[in-house]
Amino acid sequence: MEKRCVDSQVKGVSTGTTILAATFDGGVVIGSDSRASIGGEYVSNKVINKVIQVHDRIFCCMAGSLADAQAVTKAAKFQLSLHSVQMEAPPLVIAAASVLKELCYRNKEELQAGFITAGWDSKEGPQVYVVSLGGMLVRQPVTIGGSGSTYIYGYIDAKYTPNMSREDCLQFATNALALAMGRDNVSGGVVNLVVITHRGVERVVIPGDKLPKFHDE
Amino acid sequence: MSSIGTGYDLSASTFSPDGRVFQVEYAMKAVENSSTAIGIRCKDGIVFGVEKLVLSKLYEEGSNKRIFNIDRHVGMAVAGLLADARSLAEVSREEASNFRSNYGHDIPLKHLSERVAMYVHAYTLYSAVRPFGCSFILGSYDKDDGPQLYMVDPSGISYGYWGCAIGKAKQAAKTEIEKLQVSLNLMNVEVQEKLKLMVTLLVCQMKEMTCRELVKEVAKIIYIVHDEVKDKAFELELSWVGEVTNGRHELVPKNIREEAEKYAKDSLEEDDDSDEDNM
Lengths: 217, 279
Known about the structure:
The complex is a heterodimer. Chain A is α+β, with helices and mostly antiparallel strands. In chain A, 28% of the residues lie in helices and 32% in strands. In chain A, strand 2 and strand 3 form a beta hairpin. In chain A, helix 1 (66-87) packs across helix 2. Chain A starts with a strand and ends in an 11-residue tail after the last strand. Chain B is built from 7 helices and 10 strands. Chain B has helices spanning 22-32, 82-103, 109-122, 174-179, 191-206, 211-225, 254-274, and strands at residues 37-42, 45-53, 67-71, 74-80, 134-142, 146-152, 158-160, 163-166, 234-242, 250-251. In chain B, the strands form 2 sheets. Chain B has a 5-stranded antiparallel beta sheet with strand order 8-1-2-9-10, covered by helices on one side. In chain B, strand 1 and strand 2 form a beta hairpin. The model of chain B is unreliable at 172-189 (pLDDT under 50). The A-B interface holds A 83, 86-89, 91-92, 94-95, 97-99, 101-102, 122-123, 137 and B 101-105, 108, 110-111, 114, 144.
């Protein structure tokens, strides 16, 4: 994540990160890189966690200003936990995404944060939602975000298929993030993945030396 | 019935020495003066039936509806002061709409009935306002959760039901009703008892019924309960929500309603023929 440069006048500055989420047969994989940088020159944190749990089976990845994203996810986590107690049931993934969307949309003047929300619920199964900077909410089977995502649109379009197996999807996500981290200077570190299914949540961390290598490495 | 609560019944903020809030009880009496509304839950949906008394021949047909749409999947049938009921229908609509705006999906009926019940309850706490003089039945159908039926009364309590009735024939104790057997002699029974018994007979069968079958039974109950002597003309309002309507709450289409009314009238005639004494 980048701290906004003082002399940068451009709103909606791309963030130093690569985030991704993809549905497979029976679950979703959500993941990100782990680099936080300042001014694109200095790596302030090599192993930051950008995948935040907002409920038992709902996670979100942050894009944009780290401070704004953290504040929004904290507020959303609180609202969702109250909501799920009132409903006497775990919240739906769309409910989590809608809460984030309302926060982003109602405060769009002050905030600069977007999210990828992924999770599993008993009604619709595995889902991925994108909440953009201004507060648009859209559901997609696979989605990527952050500055590093520009380098892997082609890979995602070519290699993603719906209803992959869990192993295939994990490999797909790892490859995508590794490719992005290989080209984007402000993405890097380890690959943090979370696999969510009806059975539960599993965290997978792939350190830099175990990442897939491509022809030129 | 209940004693006059002299001195303790002037405001909702006062308890009586025996622990009652008389204003709330008086509000419930207002509901009991109103004509009957029933809601029954079956295997694949909910059916509402309302005995809408027509006070003047000059009324346009279908005016003063007592069944409201709260959200596309939720319906509400009311009994009591109609103006109070309309205001609560508006409150329910806002509640359902805000939920959808905040959470992106249809409001679960249990949550909606709890929220509206909380609102109704708030009006039983202060002397500056009076309690709402209406009870209402909320019903919805969802393909995952199935049919749901909840009733809210002026005290601000909400309960889930398989079948319930409000108004002149308000159902009091569920347990004694469920104990009754299926085949019963219905002669010489008062209207209130009769309605309770009718609904009990249905409890045994209705869990297996479909909406189409249930519509006729609901019409029959309303016709049976209607007192020809005291009340004159009435319109039967019928609505349903279930698999048959794809989860949307709608008024029952005219042809099905007419078929149900015919069934009801025919069954009444049969009963009349077979009864020895008059009710």
